[in-house]
Give the backbone structure.
Amino acid sequence: MELEAIFKTIWLLLRFIKKTTTMDNKQKTGSPDRDRINVNEDYELRDWSKKFGVTPEKLKEAVKKVGTSVKDVEQFLKK
């Protein structure tokens, strides 16, 4: 019986985590999703490259050097 309770608790925690995660959940847009760049999503790579006026390769390079923060990437690309 104790093992069943542990599994149920783990299952509930995983459901909670899944429901509260916003990064790359297209149904849950908001600040966390707009503040980060995911170069592994084709639409994000295309849209952010267009916004910054750079090639997708240049955007990937910027994210690799400064991380996924939109502000950091923007500052890097302005240099």
The chain has a mean pLDDT of 84. Helices lie at 2-20, 31-34, 42-52, 56-66, 70-78.
